Amino acid sequence: MKKILQIENVALTYQTLTDEITAINDLSFDCNDGEFLSIIGPSGCGKTTILSLIAGLIKHTSGKILIDEKPINIKNNDMGYMLQKDQLFPWRTIEKNVYLPLEIKRKLSDENKNYALSLLEKYGLKDFVKKYPSQLSGGMRQRVALIRTLVSNPKILLLDEPFSALDYQTRLAVCDDVYKIIKAERKTAVLVTHDISEALSMSDIIIVLSDRPAKVKSIHHPNLNGDTPLRKRESENFGFWFEKIWKELN
Amino acid sequence: MKKQKTFSTHHALFVKKVRNENILVWFLRFFILIALLGFWELFAYVGLIDSFITSSPSIIVKTIINLFANDNLLYHVGITLYETILGFLIASALGYIIALILWWSERLRRILEPYIVVLNSLPKIALGPLIIIWFGSGSKAIIFMAILIGIIVAIITMLNGFLEADDGKILLLKSMGANKFQILIKLIIPGSTATLISMLKINVGMAWIGSIMGEYLVSRAGLGYLIVYGGQVFKLDLVMASTVVLCILATLMYAVVAMLEKTIIKYKN
Ligand SMILES: Nc1ncnc2c1ncn2[C@@H]1O[C@H](COP(=O)(O)OP(=O)(O)O)[C@@H](O)[C@H]1O
Ligand SMILES: [Mg+2]
After folding, report:
1. Does residue A86 contact residue A93 with C-beta atoms inside 8 Å?
2. Cα A128 vs. chain centroid, distance in angstroms?
């Protein structure tokens, strides 16, 4: 299988006036095309920093980041970033919100617009195209946020604790939702979370990080039965894996 | 596609209660106005207060009609409106643009910060004599005064609005590869329409302060001039009448901005 993301001995140090914070030190892992990878670690250990590096928002201090076997190109980076809050623009309709990446990348062709609309339609948002975000529920808004990352056809989706702002019930549903969409669109995804069940129920690979500075503590391939996160949560190995990762984190 | 919903009788009672409350508020508002005017008129009529000093509603109305017929009220209104609106537009537009530039360059923002603080706390009227020397004693000086008073507030209000933009949204745009100009166009400007409206509302008031103060200082025409002139020759009817006209105009101008708000911000339901 093709390696779409390779991180080799990457380090990053933040500079502030009073301090020098090494957020990541000697981090290495990689991810195959089409895989769902989760990064789990204590809060403040450097998870968001890792995503910022892959998204090309900040530059690593040392080491190598390869996307599609080529060094990361900050100018022409092909990532879809999904954040904790949906970050939909309240003054734009749903349709205009999902066109945003196309506008930024100057790819607002009829073809791309139709693709965006077809995604909205496919995932049950057809009736909301002309509505404003404030007229949608939290779960639907997160679905729109995901579709917005898909319209520019990015190589990798980066998800930074995208469900943590939702209440528990909605979270399970949205988790399922997002997983299905990502699999249906055959996307590679890197999810950052501190929720073990969430990581277990969604991922092919789980990377457990140490405290700051973030290093890889262990890598797991849980391979749980079930084709959706909800079903995986019900599989018999779930408890075993949960305990295993929980012990590593503590 | 809204479902028809049937309501209980409690709902009707509730609606009625809210409606009655609103009617009462409106009624009391008018009542206060009528009572004030009524007592004012009555006391002046029976001689309890000296209408030479306090004027009276009927005299004010007569004076306004007189001004309109004999003294070119519309001319004075026109002059003041021209100065105020021009001052308002220039101060708001210039303030907006300067705030954009300050948003763009953090360095410039830091360099200019103490100057803005000083200009903000300076009572602009103190510059009156200088302005007269620079611009003469006509509309130009008055418009300049109105701009001076409005522009600092416009800059400070707008800059704060621009800087309030959500960091998460900036991050999102950057992750899409947006440059600074795109962040400005897609997020900063559309995201600050509420601030723009409140800046315009504040600036309506500022522009009136500027133009009337300017007219007090220098002018030969305008409502401010009529008020000062009326005071000097002890024609208090004239002072009162001009003040009433001023009140009406300022309220109308504010109403126009408030209407703008309704048409612009439609996504807030
Ligand atoms: N811009 C920054 N400047 C300085 N320190 C930072 C910056 N961003 C993050 N950090 C520090 O780096 C560490 C890792 O942060 P982050 O990647 O956000 O952690 P996580 O997402 O795992 O909670 C934290 O201790 C944080 O305080
Ligand atoms: Mg984080």
Report:
1. no
2. 24
Mutate to test the interface with A, among B1, B175, B180, B197 (most CBs of A within 10 A): B175
* Angle between helices B73-104 and B223-232 in degrees, nearest 10: 120
The one-letter code for the residue type at A55 is: A
ipTM of the complex: 0.90
Interstrand relation of A216-220 and A156-160 (parallel, antiparallel or unpaired): unpaired
Ligand 1, residues at Cβ distance < 6 Å: A 14, 16, 21, 23, 41, 43-49, 212
The pair of structure tokens assigned to A29 is 């892992």
In this structure, are residues A165 and A137 in contact, taking their beta carbons and an 8 Å threshold? no
Per-residue pLDDT tens over the stretch A205-225: 999 998 888 888 889 998 888
Which residue, judged by its Cα, is nearest atom 1 of ligand 1? Answer: A14
The answer to whether A103 contacts chain B (CB < 8 Å) is yes
Right CATH for B57-268 from 1.10.1760.20, 1.10.3720.10, 3.30.70.890, 3.40.50.2300: 1.10.3720.10
State the DSSP string of B10-21. Answer: HHHHHHHHHHHH
Spell out which residues of chain B touch residue A75, defining contact as CB-CB under 8 Å: 177
- Cβ(A89)–Cβ(B190) below 8 Å: yes
Mean pLDDT over A26-30 rounds to 91
Span A108-124, pLDDT tens digits: 999 999 999 999 998 88
Task: Assess if residue A12 is contained within a domain.
Answer: yes
- For residue A68, CA distances in Å to A5, A32, A57, A152, A186 come to 6, 10, 18, 17, 16
C-alpha distances in Å from residue A48, one per residue of A40, A51, B54: 11, 5, 70
Give the strand order in the sheet containing A62-67.
A20-32, A3-15, A62-67, A70-71
Whether residue A233 is contained in a domain is answered as yes
Instruction: Give me the phi and psi of B67, to 5 degrees please.
Output: -55, -45
Segment B257-266, tens digit of pLDDT: 988 888 877 6
- Note whether A70 and A46 are within 8 A (CB): no
DSSP 8-state class, residue A216: E
